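Notes to self after the call with IL:
- keep both proteins in one doc
- input above output, always
- annotate only the second one for now

Protein 1:
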Amino acid sequence: MKKIFLLAAFFTAMTVAACGGDDEPETSVIPEQPEQPGDKPDQPESTAEFARGADISWYTEMEADGKKFYTAEGVETPCPQLMRAIGMNAVRLRVWVNPQRKGCGSYSDPADVLVKAKAAHEAALNIMVDFHFSDWWADPSRQEMPLDWAGLDMEALQTAVADHVRQTLSSLKQAGIPVAWVQVGNETRNGMMHPAGQLWNEQGDLPDGWKHFAALYMAGYDAVKEVYPDALVMPHLNHAYENNLWWFDKFRSAGGQMDMIALSHYPQADDDSQSWSALNQAAITQISNLHARYGVPVMVAEFGAKIANESLAAQVSADFMQRARSLGKEVCAGVFYWEPEVYANWRPSWYVPLGWGAYDMGAFTATGKPSQVLDPWRE
């Protein structure tokens, strides 16, 4: 905030100085007023700090559907600002190539990501960008080639990947938005952009599967570094509790590079044969093993707990966050809650004809306020 001087005092001082004389009193200098709280815009925490984050990619679609977000006191607050207010320091934003081709509207396309990134930056949140390399969901159940890229050979597909990453990130950089982390692919246990980047089928590893996947990944990795040289780039797997060393061994042998590793962890949904507490501990063990083997930090890029029993979900979240933070940020760089802002059984309108239900791990109450499940994300 600029310092405000009293105009009357200013003109008096100017008059005395201009008409000076031995008999005239000396003018006193008006002291600068001290900075007041709120004078300077908030700044994001250093990315060296433990990331207390959330993937809030759905929030613009929720807003368009009439949903609003409120503080515990009932004050309506834009979603990114609310995340900051409850203690988070980072957000994750997914990017789909052309979601209109799948009937998903324009949400999570590069233009929508730019809108959300601007809002996150204004809220002093660090940003992770999550490239799915699909027109909609990319995860272990589907890794669909973007429709506009179908039929491209491997060389052309690498160019398409690099162009998509470069153009998306360049729009953010031109808007003055820093990006701290980038995922190249989303939950790519069996590769991405099938069939070109698929790793195996029922008969086993595909010929050149790891080679092709690594080449596509590295096209994205290199494009990230062109735009944001200091951004930390990572592959992403589901099932943090599993021994994933074999996967990363093959990935690196095929030429894959990584500055960080991203994992998903849903302790109440990943494995019904084990308790959530056992899965939490297993995930912590595997995070430690990954760091020890590869010397890079691990980011839990997705976490969720079932909101139907809010007190239990809060216990699940608190247990995992305590364990994760106890590892130290050099080992576990942070935890992102996946879509906490979902409430009251909201789902995208295009879910209805597909017969898909609402996400059951949102961490807001039915009245649109953050629940106790998010308390561990407060500093």
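Protein 2 (the one to annotate):
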Amino acid sequence: MIIIPAVDIINGQCVRLKQGDYAQKVVYDTDPVAVVRRFAEQGAELIHMVDLDGAKAGEPRNLDTVVKAAASVSVPVELGGGIRSLDTVRKVLDGGVDRVILGTAVLANPRWLADAVQEYGRRIVVGIDARDGQVAVQGWLETSGTDALTLAETMKSVGVQEIIYTDIARDGMLQGPNLQGLERMAQSGLKVVASGGISSLTDISAVRQLEPQGVYAAIIGRALYTGDIDLRAAIAAAKGDGV
């Protein structure tokens, strides 16, 4: 299993939210590019960036910062937040970002998703963010009423290979991941990235037990910034060392 450190951006700053609530914002660093470099130096194999301004606005707002960060490291960088058209997908990927994460766009206008997958293949990842098993949209501000597993199965049918599953109730709360939710999402047959709540090496070990079912990676955010988890130790734990 691999560990993917998260860098969330608002107004050009590296922040973390609690349960996706923009009112519960904590600024951890004023230089996201430096944070990305630090994670790469510590052994990250992939870095997860989210444009939270973009998620709310419906189009990227911090793309220049993300592109600069991607150019500063040799490891791939993925971006989510406000990517809601094929033109935007092209702009982001042409800018040097390795993968894009599509969220709300999949529900609001699914027709172009198949075109994106056909054009870019594994570089298209779908983020499924759920509250009580229901997909959340509009930067987590609304709940769609769509079942998360049903959406995952639909994504597989159009050629998507991988999803990032976030349990919003766990995100930023350092209360551990929703293992049952992850296990359920793995039933889709897609590659699954766990996101939300991971706060200890024990949590990483628990998620790693789901690797045979298809949960191949875990995103860690707040715990890296608070010091609850050391990235190098997390990477070792994900490979089965030291836990």
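Annotation: Residues 32-41 form the longest helix (10 residues). The mean pLDDT is 90.
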